[in-house]
Amino acid sequence: MQTRTVRAWTWVHKWSSLVSTLFLLMLCITGLPLVFTHEIDEVLLHQQWEPANPAGPKLSLDQVLEVALSRHPGEVGAFMSFDEDRPVVNVTSVNPNGPADVYNFQPIDQTSGEAAPLVAGHPVMEFLLQLHTDMFLGLPGMLFLGAMGLLLVAALVSGVVLYAPFMRRLPFGTVRADKAARTRWLDYHNLLGVVTLAWVLMVGVTGVVNTLATPVIAYWKDTALSELTAAYDAPVAAGERAPLDAAVKRAKAALPGMTLQFVAFPGSSYSTDHHYAVFFHGDTPLTTHMTTPALIDARTGELSAVAPMPWYVKTLSLSQPLHFGDYGGLGLKILWALLDIATIVILVSGLYLWLAKRKKT
Questions:
Q1: Rounded to whole angstroms, how far apart are CA atoms 339 and 347?
Q2: Mapping DSSP to helix (H, G, I), strand (E, B) and coil, where does residue 170 land?
Q3: What is the CATH number of domain 225-309?
Q4: What is the pLDDT of the chain when averaged over all its residues?
Q5: Where are the alpha helices (DSSP H) in the chain?
Q6: What is the mean pLDDT of residues 244-264?
Q7: With 0-12 CB in 10 A as exposed, 13-18 as middle and 19+ as buried, what is 177?
């Protein structure tokens, strides 16, 4: 490799690393406990609860919705989701004349209509998740962290390009323990970097994809769902909607063998102004994150379409479990945590090497 080429790759590696290091450190440090979110919440927030009438009949979804909206007059349903391990329906409602991003979330016991305990994350975990996701800046924060992820990819690629000619002079994995501290840390930095390369690259790319969630969903609504709304002249008002329970049963008949995940009401971010979007997922650890919606005409209750997610939405759906390693049990989470710690060492050692070189110069 020519000297000029080496200098160019060195410049890319140095500045892509330096610009992103502090933010990547923040993501690694906050991401470490987030890998174990379920386990931490289970320990800190575990609470015993039994439904009011465990052997009795369950309320219909329309009855559950009516109960939820009666507690917040003037609001309309936005989403409805379903707990997997208890007979609880979670109703999210919104004031159509109020701020678009202010929601009320109500867990309701489907056996009685009474309020069920809210299963929410621990405040510390919620804080870490928000910091990790968008630094409390919303979409601009997400896109900024996505840009830092792209710099990480540039740092990885340039590091590999520089590592190849460097290792021609040394056996793979060599750590020159008898040399100066800076040389030892350079060897540790290079060794950990090449060993964790595939994992860091995968986590970095999936992290970038996750930051694009808002524009990806908006694009899906504006393109893939636009044909389904062409025949409608006005949004379906809440008083004109077909029964929700019948709509969900119609969707289940269209997608047999799949598990009901949630319902997006007309006008919500995951539906159109004219449909109930009833989402289902598979029953394996990975297909649990692969959703397929059945779109039900909100006025007639008839099936409009089964709309498999396009590739870019499927990519978004798969990126989150790959990013956090929460699809293979506790063993995979521990592996993710160890690799995360190794990445922290790589980032800190890279910063140390740069500072040591500046001091020497």
A1: 12
A2: coil
A3: 3.10.450
A4: 87
A5: 3-34, 37-45, 61-70, 123-134, 139-166, 181-195, 197-211, 213-223, 226-229, 244-254, 311-324, 329-360
A6: 92
A7: exposed
* Range with the poorest average pLDDT among 59-63, 273-277, 284-288, 308-312: 284-288
Tell me if 3 sits within 8 A of 135, measured CB to CB.
no
Q: What are the residue boundaries of the structural domains of the chain, listed by start?
A: 3-43+124-211+324-360, 48-116, 225-309
> What is the reported pLDDT for 44?
79
Residues 60, 47, 259: CA angle, nearest 5 degrees: 40
Each residue's pLDDT tens digit, 169-189: 777 667 777 788 888 888 888
Q: What global pTM score does this model have?
A: 0.80
**Amino acid letter for position 315:** T
Angstrom distance (rounded) from CA 12 to CA 201 = 17
Q: How far is CA 260 from CA 21, 59, 294, 319, 354, in A?
A: 41, 17, 11, 21, 52
Q: What CATH fold (topology level) applies to the domain 48-116?
A: Nuclear Transport Factor 2; Chain: A, (3.10.450)
**What contacts 101, CB < 8 A, 6 or more positions away?**
none
Residue pair 87/110 in contact (Cβ under 8 Å)? The answer is yes
